[in-house]
């Protein structure tokens, strides 16, 4: 029985390197890897050893005999990535093993390489992992919240618990004795870039793209308007969004843009609250959803069905869990696209859209309507949003859709980092393979690096950051080995002292473990994976109860006593 990769594939490629017969593609060294929506197992070449299952950090790989109903479409999706062959015929072997990208080997002749990483999301954690596979390295992570893991904690939808399993991998990284957490510490506020460089050879920024792209049309900003990413942060209990006003008293919500974030939000807005109650959704969001009047979420895209921004795995997941419909004219657009589009992936999406029900049929519960060719003109309403007015592409028609909540979901946007150059148009830090480049001189800024969305823009999946971070770490380590980095002037203990002076409420690894354990315990009472703290003061109170590792003096005393 071959194995099958399913919806929660994170694209980090760990399975590729674990596979003894090289039957998972595209591998990170192959063209198409960076833009692939998921990875695929060749069912003919798979020897069913299960090595990929253990390697996958998000539990996305399942033997085909154990797939549940919702996962069955992935059998065909995995197989269709490979050319059709007569039964049992294998592809010509390229190699027994996928080409592993060479590790970033830290030269042994130097003092330990010390790296500060700013941010603690997937790009940061993959970078730390890549560094700590070497002997001669120390890594400190600085994060402005008291809790780590960035969008895995605050961005992944609560009904995608599989995806959140990647934190187990991150927990292993943080358990390394050469790793230090400085949580609740904001770089640019408590400490500067220059101060970090006094204590480290290099500073790597993996701060993501914290802002939303904004839609500048009349009426945005009215009560009842907002962005999908803010709503996701609210749903996930991000402390800066826990008091976001979210009006669910109207029966329709409109989301502008149809990427995976829009799908996540629509799915959660129409989900059964009893299902959500089994997840780690923030309590305030769960309470609001229990009272929600929302009966329909319209996801409005400005282009046609063939240009849908959501990915095929997410569309399959959506249609398996929610009632999704199209208007008759959108069904016609799907048919038109099916007649002209030849690309297999897009055709797969179109076939699924084609099979969806019609919006004229009665709804059995809250449902999602995918709508196309609608460019937003203005938000309707005076004191509160009452709907959206759209131009219908290719016609003179103006269409109005009533709604009490209008969310834009048109992508994230990177934010300038103090003391580093910034490319305003691309909203990234200018860089070459992760080395920050000064646009004035065209030369690298010594000791400054980037990884993740602030390096390449807000695209890809959690695991896309693994090869992205590896590229940056290889550049950083090469610079260290070549003596291009400046050695830190201060001893490690001086860093702890400085941070404690600037931010006495710093949370270390023990503090985070205490918060983590307390949240899991709170969840256990109700059979939930965790109940999150959404208030920084509560997090800090729990972190303060963490047992502190003994100081050097106390360790010495204990040894003498023994
Ligand atoms: P996205 O995939 O880039 O989608 C943005 C959407 O906004 C597109 O439909 C785009 O339409 C539309 N848009 C952009 N500007 C617009 C404008 N001025 N007016 C109207 N529509 C506009 O962004 P996202 O959904 O925020 O996702 C970001 C990344 O995170 C993606 O790589 C996504 O796959 C990933 N992600 C993955 C998951 C998952 O795997 N479960 C979940 C969440 C996010 P056009 O195409 O016409 O420009």
Question: What's the quick description here?
Answer:
Its cofactor is FAD. Residues 1-29, 37-66 form the 4Fe-4S ferredoxin-type domain. With 562 residues, the protein is of the alpha/beta class.
Structure, described:
It is globular, with a radius of gyration of 25 Å. The chain contains 21 helices and 23 strands. Helix 9 (228-235) crosses helix 10 (260-270), helix 10 packs parallel to helix 13 (312-321) and helix 19 (509-524) packs across helix 20 (536-543). It folds into four domains: 3-81, Alpha-Beta Plaits, CATH 3.30.70; 113-210 and 414-506, Rossmann fold (3-Layer(aba) Sandwich), CATH 3.40.50; 239-408, FAD/NAD(P)-binding domain; 510-561, no CATH class. The mean pLDDT is 94. A hairpin with a 5-residue loop joins strand 17 and strand 18 (398-402). The termini are far apart. It has a seven-stranded mixed beta sheet, with helices on both faces. Strands 10-19-11-12-15-13-14 form a seven-stranded parallel beta sheet. A three-stranded antiparallel beta sheet has the order 16-17-18, with no helix packed on it. It has 562 residues and is an alpha/beta fold. The longest helix has 18 residues, at 464-481. 33% of the residues lie in helices and 17% in strands. The structure holds NADP nicotinamide-adenine-dinucleotide phosphate. NADP nicotinamide-adenine-dinucleotide phosphate (NAP) is lined by residues 215, 256-262, 264, 301-303, 307, 309, 311, 314, 409-412, 458-461.
CA radius of gyration is 25 Å
Query: Regarding CATH, which class of the largest domain?
Result: Alpha Beta
Q: Which fold name is given in CATH as the topology of the largest domain? A: Rossmann fold
Structural class: alpha/beta
Ligands, ions, cofactors: NADP nicotinamide-adenine-dinucleotide phosphate
The general outline is globular
Task: Please report the number of helical segments.
Answer: 21
Give the biggest sheet.
7 strands, mixed
């Amino acid at each position: 029985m071959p194995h099958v990769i399913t919806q929660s594939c994170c694209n980090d490629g760990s399975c590729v390197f674990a596979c003894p017969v090289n039957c998972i593609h595209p591998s990170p060294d192959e063209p198409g890897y960076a833009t692939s929506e998921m990875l695929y197992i060749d069912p003919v070449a798979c020897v069913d050893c299960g090595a990929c299952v253990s390697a996958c950090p998000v539990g996305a790989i399942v033997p085909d005999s154990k797939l549940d109903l919702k996962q069955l479409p992935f059998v065909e999706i995995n197989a269709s990535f490979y050319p059709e062959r007569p039964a049992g015929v294998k592809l010509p072997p390229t190699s027994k093993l996928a080409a592993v990208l060479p590790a970033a080997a830290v030269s042994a002749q130097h003092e330990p390489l010390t790296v500060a990483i700013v941010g603690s999301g997937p790009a940061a954690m993959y970078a730390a992992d890549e560094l700590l596979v070497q002997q001669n390295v120390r890594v400190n992570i600085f994060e402005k919240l008291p809790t780590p893991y960035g969008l895995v904690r605050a961005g992944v939808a609560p009904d995608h618990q599989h995806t959140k399993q990647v934190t187990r991998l991150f927990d292993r990284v943080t358990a390394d004795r050469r790793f230090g957490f400085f949580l609740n510490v904001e770089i640019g506020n408590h400490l500067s870039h220059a101060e970090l460089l006094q204590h480290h050879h290099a500073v790597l920024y993996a701060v993501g793209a914290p802002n939303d792209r904004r839609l500048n049309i009349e009426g945005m900003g009215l009560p009842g308007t907002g962005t999908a990413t803010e709503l996701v942060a609210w749903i996930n209990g991000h402390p800066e969004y826990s008091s976001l006003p979210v009006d669910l008293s109207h029966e329709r919500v409109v989301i502008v843009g149809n990427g995976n974030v829009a799908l996540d939000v629509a799915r959660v807005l129409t989900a059964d609250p009893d299902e959500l109650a089994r997840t780690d959704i923030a309590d305030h969001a769960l309470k609001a959803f229990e009272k929600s009047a929302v009966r329909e979420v319209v996801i409005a895209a400005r282009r046609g069905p063939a240009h849908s921004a959501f990915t095929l795995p997410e569309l399959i997941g959506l249609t398996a869990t929610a009632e999704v419909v199209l208007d008759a004219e959108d069904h016609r657009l799907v048919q038109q696209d099916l007649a002209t589009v030849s690309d297999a992936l897009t055709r797969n999406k179109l076939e699924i859209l084609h099979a969806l029900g019609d919006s004229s049929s009665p709804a059995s519960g809250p449902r999602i309507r995918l709508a196309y060719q609608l460019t937003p003109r203005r938000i309707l309403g005076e004191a509160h949003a009452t709907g959206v007015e759209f131009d219908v592409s290719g016609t003179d028609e103006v269409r109005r859709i009533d709604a009490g909540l209008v969310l834009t979901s048109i992508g994230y946007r990177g934010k300038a980092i103090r003391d580093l150059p910034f490319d305003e148009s691309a909203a990234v830090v200018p860089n070459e393979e992760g080395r920050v480049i000064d646009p004035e001189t065209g030369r690298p800024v010594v000791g400054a690096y980037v990884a993740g969305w602030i390096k390449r823009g807000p695209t890809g999946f959690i695991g896309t950051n693994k090869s992205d971070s590896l590229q940056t770490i290889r550049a950083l380590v090469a610079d260290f080995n070549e003596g291009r980095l400046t050695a830190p002037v201060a001893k490690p203990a001086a860093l702890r002292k400085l941070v404690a002076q600037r931010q006495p409420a710093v949370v270390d690894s023990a503090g985070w473990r205490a918060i983590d354990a307390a949240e899991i315990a709170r969840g256990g009472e109700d059979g939930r994976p965790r109940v999150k703290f959404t208030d920084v003061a509560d997090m800090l109170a729990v972190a303060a109860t963490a047992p502190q590792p003994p100081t050097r003096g106390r360790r010495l005393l204990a040894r003498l006593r023994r």
